Amino acid sequence: MSKLGYEVVAIDTSQALLNELIHHDDGKRIKTVCEDIRKIRDIVVCPVDLVLCMGDTISLLDSNLEMTGLLKDIRQCLSGKGRFILSFRDQTRALEGVDRFLPIKSERDIVFTCLLEYEKDRIGVTDFLYQFADGKWSLQKSSYKKIRIFSEKLEAIICEVGFKIVWKDEKNGFVTLVMERNND
Asked: Which among 114, 173, 2 is positioned nearest to 10, based on CA atoms?
């Protein structure tokens, strides 16, 4: 986006990810902010023409109430013709058995696998990171919960907070929505 001349503000809680973005920003046109996306209205100068929310961002919020609040805040930040692009993994169908183990990354010295445990409205995630260094493998483990995203339910919330979905794409369980403010 910055290469097309847009002013870009990248928000993430991971300084490591933001540093990688800075490293690839040849024109030094991207402003990075290490902060929680839930503070978007305090971070960006509204109105904006485009907000992107990609990957697991929406599912890593603490509750559906927080998700609704973030969607409302994003809508408030958009200009009249602004657009919001959201991508997320549709988790309507729970993975079962060995399908709950997902390979994330596999290289010569690193193997990253994830285990998903489905609950009614949440998913338990356990990460396994194997790293090879100094002639031996080491294992790091971590667990956390995230919101279980049901595509149909999320789309209803999106419309309730005042968005109109103008484009939708679904591939391999991943959904991408392009929305505008519904000014009715």
From this structure: 2
